[in-house]
Amino acid sequence: QVQLAESGGGLVQAGGSLRLSCAASGLAFIKYTMGWFRQASGKEREFVAAETSIGYSTYYKDSVKGRFAISRDNAKNTVTLEMNGLKPEDTAVYYCTADLKTAQRMSVVRDPPSELQFWGQGTQVTVSS
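User: That's the sequence. What structure does it adopt?
Assistant: Structure tokens below.
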């Protein structure tokens, strides 16, 4: 059974930093592109960042470029999202996802919950102004 377990969310002031982690089990981790999506209250789930399994190619939502960094550890089956310079508009539930699509294709899916294979339960990130 595949499990993706996120951790590291919380409440932070604007300008602050958080580090999200996702631990994966039950899948051949090295084969999967790993990504982060987020869903703010009343809004659709949106792409944040992704990293391919081979070559470590990364893609980012434009509004987080330069502030967020995704990285994976294939030996530990984990993926992290370092978030710096947080803004109130970054407030959302952040989800870890795994799929066999490339990072570029993951970044443009129209209906993430149905188009991407595995999801974690999410972790809340709240940025106060």
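The radius of gyration is 13 Å.
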